[in-house]
Specification:
The chain has 249 residues and is an alpha/beta fold. The protein has seven helices and 14 strands. Strands 6-5-4-3-2-1-14 form a seven-stranded mixed beta sheet. The chain has a seven-stranded mixed beta sheet with strand order 7-8-9-10-11-12-13, with helices on one face. The longest helix has 11 residues.
Length: 249
C-alpha cells in the first residue's frame, strides 16, 4: 500500500504546505481535494479516480475545481466524487455555481453507501463519523492485502471517541493535529485536536504508526505541533510533509 501526502496543512496554504489531499495512486483513490490537488497530475496511475470527501469546507474541496486541468492533461476518463449527500449538494450548489466556477468538471457526485466500497487493486474503503467539527466530518479506513490505513481529518478527540473502534489496530493512522499543546480551548471551539490528545488516541487504539497532519497554517516551521510531546506518549509518530511517500507493507 503506497500513500502520497500531497497536502498537509489546514485552512489555507502557506510557504511550506498546501491544504489536505492524500492519494493512493495504485488504487486511484484520493482523500480530500484541498489546494494540493493540482499535484495529482504528477502521480496518476489509473484512468479512473475516486475522490472521497471528508466534508465540504473550502480547504478540503476547492481542489475539485482543478479537475479540468487533471483531465485535460492526462488519460483519466472517469472521476467519481464521493461524500455525504448533503456535502455533495453543497459543493454542487455553491462551489460549482455559475458565478463562482462556471465550468463544472466532468465528475459524478455519488453519496456514500453503508457497504464497503471496492477500489481497484482489491482495496476496500469504509467511512465513519468523526467528532465535534462544525458541520460534521467523516473519516475513512482503507484495507488492502492485510494492511490498513485510517484517514482522520478535522475532528476533536473526545474522552470517548466515537470513531475509536473504526481505527483500532490500523497499520497507519493519518490524523489531524491542528494545534500544538496549550491551545486546547480554541481546538475545542473550532472542532480540532492538539498534539498530546492525538498521540494518546493512537496509543489507545493500538495503531502501528501515527502520521500527524492538517497543521495550523500559521505554523510554517519543521515542527508545527511539538513532535517530542507526541513521541513521549506514542513513539512511532511522524509529521506529514507535502510530497511524502509512505509504504505500508
Amino acid at each position: 500500500m503506497r500513500i502520497l501526502v500531497l497536502g498537509s496543512t489546514g485552512y489555507h496554504p502557506n510557504e511550506r504546505r498546501h491544504t489536505s489531499c492524500v492519494m493512493f495512486p495504485e488504487f486511484g483513490g484520493i482523500f480530500d481535494a484541498g489546494t494540493a490537488f493540482f499535484r495529482v497530475i504528477e502521480h496518476l496511475e489509473t484512468k479512473e479516480l475516486d475522490i472521497f470527501l471528508s466534508h465540504a469546507h473550502l480547504d478540503h474541496v476547492v481542489g475539485l475545481t482543478y479537475l479540468l486541468d487533471v483531465m485535460r492533461s492526462s488519460d483519466v476518463k472517469r472521476v467519481v466524487v464521493r461524500g455525504e449527500a448533503e456535502k455533495l449538494a453543497a459543493v454542487e450548489e455553491h462551489l460549482f455555481a455559475d458565478l463562482i466556477f462556471p465550468l463544472s468538471p466532468p465528475a459524478e457526485l455519488v453519496p456514500l453507501e453503508e457497504e464497503p466500497f471496492s477500489l481497484r487493486g482489491g482495496a476496500e474503503v469504509r467511512h465513519f463519523q468523526l467528532d465535534g467539527h462544525p458541520g460534521g466530518t467523516v473519516g475513512y479506513r482503507i484495507d488492502e492485502g492485510g494492511k490498513s490505513c485510517a484517514y482522520v481529518p478535522d475532528t476533536r478527540v473526545l474522552k470517548e471517541p466515537g470513531y475509536l473502534d473504526a481505527i483500532r489496530g490500523v497499520d497507519l493512522l493519518i490524523h489531524e493535529c491542528n494545534f500544538r499543546d496549550g491551545f486546547e480551548e480554541i481546538a475545542a471551539k473550532s472542532g480540532h485536536s492538539c498534539t498530546s490528545q492525538v498521540a494518546a488516541l493512537a496509543a489507545r487504539a493500538g495503531v502501528g504508526r501515527l502520521l500527524l497532519t492538517h497543521f495550523d497554517a500559521r505554523e510554517e516551521g519543521e515542527d508545527p505541533v511539538g513532535i517530542d510531546r507526541a513521541r513521549a506518549i506514542f513513539p512511532r509518530t511522524d509529521l506529514a510533509e507535502d510530497g511524502m511517500e509512505i509504504i505500508v507493507s
